[in-house]
Design goal:
mainly alpha; about 0% strand; rod-shaped; FliT; bacterial flagellum biogenesis; flagellum; chaperone
């Protein structure tokens, strides 16, 4: 039982590290692939924790519960950061789309071939 408790503590510590890694990736505006890796690793870790949890003795529960509470609070903050970042991305995509529509309208209005806009030698 004690071995399972130590293993659980290690897994919870790794989970907390992954949450921090996810927070850093969001702050750095890292590629989405990096976020997917971190999220995938967290999901695998959650499965390991769920497998180990029934074998842990009840005496040490309070320490795990406080650590788990901290992890969940960190997860909540990271989710809020992610929501803000995704909102910014949506806004940027919307602005790019509006710019594209404006260019298309300009070309239709002027009757100018699109290639002339990019290569004035034509």
């Amino acid at each position: 039982m004690e071995d399972r408790g130590g293993e659980l503590c290690t897994l919870l510590g790794r989970w907390l590290q992954l949450v921090e890694k996810q927070r850093e990736a969001i702050h750095q505006r890292a590629p989405v692939e990096m976020l997917w890796e971190v999220i995938g690793a967290k999901e695998e870790l959650k499965e390991e924790i769920a497998r180990i949890l029934p074998g842990v003795s009840g005496e040490e529960d309070s320490g795990y519960i406080s650590l788990l509470g901290r992890i969940l609070e960190e997860e909540k903050q990271v989710q809020e950061l992610l929501a803000v970042w995704l909102g910014e991305l949506r806004g940027e995509i919307s602005r790019l789309h509006q710019g594209q529509e404006a260019l298309q309208a300009y070309f239709k209005k002027k009757g100018t071939p699109q290639a002339c806009f990019f290569d004035k030698r034509r």
